[in-house]
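Its record is quoted verbatim for completeness.
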Amino acid sequence: MKVLMFGWEFPPHISGGLGTACYGLTKGLSTFPDIEILFVVPKAFGDEHQNSIGLIGANNVPVHVRNTRVAGFLKEFQQIEVGVNLLPYVDPEMYENFSNFVSSDENRFITSDLSGKFNFSGGYGKNLIAEISGYAIVAASIASNNTFDVIHAHDWLCYPAGIAAKHVSGKPLVIHVHATDFDRSGGNVNPVVFDIEQRGMEAADKIITVSNLTRNIVIEKYGIAPAKVVTVYNAVEPVETHDAEELQKFNEKIVTFLGRITMQKGPEYFIEAASLVLKRMDNVRFVMAGSGDMMHKMIRRAARLGITDKFSFTGFLKGDDVYKMFHLSDVYVMPSVSEPFGISPLEAMQSNVPVIISRQSGVAEVLSHAVKIDFWDTHAMADAIYGILNYSALHKIFQKQGKQEVDKMKWEVSAKHVRDVYYNLN
């Protein structure tokens, strides 16, 4: 079976869990000899991990559509209304630049170069909606010039591309919901994003969600029939372990938050819990590893609480630096307000780090050996942090049992469920 798969990012060029999940899933699917994947991204940088897939950069595909006026959403795939800035995954500097951008009422254009190629940025920013539309145009061309059996589109950014490919080919469409705008916005959804998400869900022949939490949102908020939606949990990619003794250079205990510093991830609750812990013990350092539009606000909050001498902000980490951070950590905390799944706790547990996660996360559905708290209950969070740091037996239980549990969560298992979805399409 040949799968035409659309994603927005792919390692090593990732901004969060989406690219990591795409890589793990495609690698898992590659273990089945009957599955062949052609993976499309807006921009190919040339250094992507392509051991298990064929990868195409939409920026390298010529399409002879030039200076097309945008007027409506994908009525003919060339057209889309562009009237909003969307900033889903950006660091503080990018956020400031984009938020200062002033939109005009002029006609917008989706423009290719003289060879008919679109110049995709491969990221997120003020032209995101225009790039999504251009990606759909190229998707239609790719679908016209390749043979495949099923289309698989990851997350809302790629739904228009999946719809375009389905329209051209007539092949069934599977969309993969890694998050919804209800998660990213806290319920204050962007109508443009919601419309794209809903159209993708309605056009899909089958919808895969990363947790039952997300499945319920798809059913209840988007009005999708339950029979159309199936949950396939994420997993974690095995990694080579580092020498923890060699990396450990600190006398203080290390408590880590790692992720986008945005409302969805609950960074403010982490800081409040840190302040409570520091009132009870001194030999502990809190690390906020990541970037996002709330980073400056969090630094100011830590300063007002008088805990900056016990707080470190590392900025965005990726690749090997993530695992080095985990190996320096004594506790990992994910206080997400609404987390469709959450791969980072699995990565922490893989590194022998006890984890504290919010009950409002999809990964809480599958983990037994993790402390689960409500994101807003900073006192419970602080108690959990204090307990794990000060009671060695508790630390060792979560460390040992957590590692054993997460080692069983393999992408090959998730991939088998996705493969079953493909074969059961009507």
Summary: Confidence is low (pLDDT under 50) at residues 66-109.
